[in-house]
């Protein structure tokens, strides 16, 4: 049985093992091969061939080996919290001791899959100030929920933490937000992703989906009717399935969502129905927020919010852990961003960009979308069938206004500015992102341009921050204004280059 985590005292702390149910968690991998075996038996009417029995024997042998390895690993993994560090000791033949000072721990993430929740355990991951690539992260595979919560409290304890008089709850779930769930890419893309997953499972089980009677019947029915009827019906079915899937995923991901300040210096977001996740972010590592408005969600008046913070792991983990508000009304997103920053969200009064940025977007859209598509259809029409020639001019006629509208929208979304201690940058059309960064968090600047943007007198300014993404962009700003803007936003970085004159300042740290 896992012992409780002791308070940090002057006495030498003792080592603690993981919960014994860790061994059962490691058996979760059996679900996929056993499910495949059962699916094969169902599809063949119980006629199991020699190959399937060999596969089952291999599964049994693997289970015995991995269970033995898991038992040894459990017996040889333990942890403790000293007065100044968090230590994890592991390894069978080669023993490893990983120790992280408590003052470097920035986030503690508790994650419990359905199997973990069934067994009453959870996974604890402690992220440090230098764990952007995952190398500085400490992970304990299975602790009881109570022990994990106590350990998190100890790891995040800081001297001098004071309570705050402000409302600690920044945001909580409102099920009226469900109307925003279908306004995402997954309404369409999720259906095809799920279909691809089912295909891979069936193919792995030795079943050819195209030979199943239900699939053959569907294709025969589809081909027997007029395309002007079947295609809209198929699209309607995809949208309906995608909408249902989006609603289910929204409920699963954001059940009991709650974003709150647990004290004056720790922000915590908790959510999940089957798989629960609880992420904590130290205020000292919070560098800003991103108000994200994908095109469909923006059309419906919604937005999401992400935190720009250090210690959230690699890019993939950062993408999961940084979301602090699900798709919700834009007013709620702005309020949540303000509560996270503990300041007003600077969403208005941004400086626009030159008209040359609009011309660039129009030209780029026509050259990269309209022209290639039209030429491809025209060439295929000349080689194969005149029908494609008509498709070529129809595509050009339809794509030109769409491209011009998107270019106009992208241009209108451009903006930047300085507001007190924050730098604001807004851009994008398929996903309009408003990034609010602490100016002191900017570690370096990159000036990027192409031959075409230089001819237009524009440059993209990238702020490097040791948190969130690799960098945050101020796209297509006047080249003459970029050095002064960078120097004003983050003083002390460009001054030595600016002292050598405007020409050198624009080329000394320039990257094409």
Please give a quick description of this structure:
This protein is of the alpha+beta class. The protein has helices at residues 22-25, 31-43, 50-75, 114-119, 145-156, 186-204, 213-224, 227-254, 295-299, 315-321, 330-341, 355-383, 386-413, 451-455, 482-489, 495-498, 502-507; strands spanning 16-17, 78-81, 85-90, 96-101, 105-112, 121-128, 138-144, 169-172, 258-263, 266-271, 276-282, 286-294, 302-309, 323-329, 415-419, 422-427, 431-438, 442-448, 458-465, 472-478, 510-511. Among the domains are: 180-254, no CATH class; 355-412; 418-512, Roll (PH-domain like), CATH 2.30.29.
Describe what you observe in this structure:
By secondary structure, this protein is α+β, with helices and mostly antiparallel strands. Among the domains are: 180-254, no CATH class; 355-412; 418-512, PH-domain like (Roll). The longest helix has 29 residues, at 355-383. Helix content is 44%, strand content 26%. Helix 2 (31-43) packs antiparallel against helix 3 (50-75) and helix 6 crosses helix 8. The protein has helices at 22-25, 31-43, 50-75, 114-119, 145-156, 186-204, 213-224, 227-254, 295-299, 315-321, 330-341, 355-383, 386-413, 451-455, 482-489, 495-498, 502-507, and strands at 16-17, 78-81, 85-90, 96-101, 105-112, 121-128, 138-144, 169-172, 258-263, 266-271, 276-282, 286-294, 302-309, 323-329, 415-419, 422-427, 431-438, 442-448, 458-465, 472-478, 510-511. The protein is built from 17 helices and 21 strands. The termini are far apart. A hairpin with a 3-residue loop joins strand 2 and strand 3 (85-90). The strands form four sheets. It has a seven-stranded antiparallel sheet with strand order 7-6-5-11-10-9-8, with helices on both faces. Pfam families: bPH_2. Residues 74-153, 254-335, 411-486 form the YdbS-like PH domain. This is YdbS-like PH domain-containing protein. It comes from Streptomyces paromomycinus. The chain crosses the membrane at residues 23-44, 50-70, 180-202, 222-251, 365-381, 387-407.
């Amino acid at each position: 049985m896992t012992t409780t985590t002791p308070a940090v005292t002057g006495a030498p702390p003792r080592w603690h093992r993981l919960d014994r149910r860790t061994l059962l968690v490691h058996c979760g991998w059996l679900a996929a091969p056993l499910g495949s075996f059962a699916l094969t038996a169902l599809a063949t009417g119980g006629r199991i061939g020699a190959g399937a029995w060999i596969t089952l024997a291999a599964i049994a042998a693997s289970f015995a080996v991995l269970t033995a390895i898991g038992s040894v690993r459990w017996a040889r993994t333990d942890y403790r919290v000293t007065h100044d560090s968090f230590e994890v000791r592991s390894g069978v033949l080669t023993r490893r001791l990983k120790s992280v000072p408590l003052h470097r721990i920035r986030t503690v993430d508790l994650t419990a899959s359905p199997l973990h929740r069934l067994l009453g355990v959870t996974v604890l991951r402690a992220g440090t100030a230098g764990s952007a690539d995952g190398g500085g992260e400490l992970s304990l595979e299975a602790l009881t929920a109570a022990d994990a919560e106590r350990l998190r409290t100890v790891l995040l304890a800081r001297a001098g933490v004071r309570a705050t008089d402000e409302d600690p709850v920044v945001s909580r779930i409102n099920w009226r937000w469900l109307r925003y769930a279908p306004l995402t890419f997954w309404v369409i893309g999720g259906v095809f992703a799920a279909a691809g997953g089912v295909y891979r499972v069936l193919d792995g089980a030795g079943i050819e989906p195209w030979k199943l009677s239900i699939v053959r019947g569907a294709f025969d029915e589809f081909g027997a009717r007029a395309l002007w009827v079947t295609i809209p019906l198929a699209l309607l079915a995809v949208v309906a399935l995608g909408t249902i899937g989006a609603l289910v995923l929204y409920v699963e991901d954001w059940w009991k969502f709650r974003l709150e300040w647990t004290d004056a210096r720790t922000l915590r977001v908790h959510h999940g129905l089957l798989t629960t996740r609880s992420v904590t972010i130290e205020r000292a590592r919070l560098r800003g927020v991103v108000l994200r408005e994908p095109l469909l969600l923006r059309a419906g008046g919604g937005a999401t919010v992400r935190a720009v913070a250090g210690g959230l792991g690699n890019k993939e983990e950062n993408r999961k852990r940084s979301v602090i508000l699900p798709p919700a009304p834009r007013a709620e997103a702005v309020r949540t961003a303000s509560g996270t920053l503990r300041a007003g969200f600077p969403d208005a009064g941004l400086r626009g960009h030159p008209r040359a940025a609009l011309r660039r977007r129009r030209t780029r859209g026509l050259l990269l979308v309209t022209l290639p598509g039209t030429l491809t259809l025209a060439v295929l029409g000349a080689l194969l069938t005149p029908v494609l020639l008509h498709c070529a001019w129809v595509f050009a006629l339809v794509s030109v206004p769409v491209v011009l509208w998107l270019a106009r929208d992208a241009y209108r979304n451009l903006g930047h500015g300085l507001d007190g201690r924050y730098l604001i940058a807004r851009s994008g059309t398929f996903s309009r992102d408003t990034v609010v960064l602490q100016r002191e968090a900017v570690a370096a600047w990159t000036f990027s341009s192409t031959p075409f943007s230089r001819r237009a007198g524009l440059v993209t300014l990238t702020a490097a921050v040791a948190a969130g993404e690799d960098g945050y962009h101020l796209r297509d700003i006047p080249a003459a204004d970029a050095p002064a803007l960078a120097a004003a936003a983050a003083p002390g970085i460009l001054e030595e280059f600016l002292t050598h004159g405007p020409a050198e300042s624009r080329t000394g740290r320039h990257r094409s």
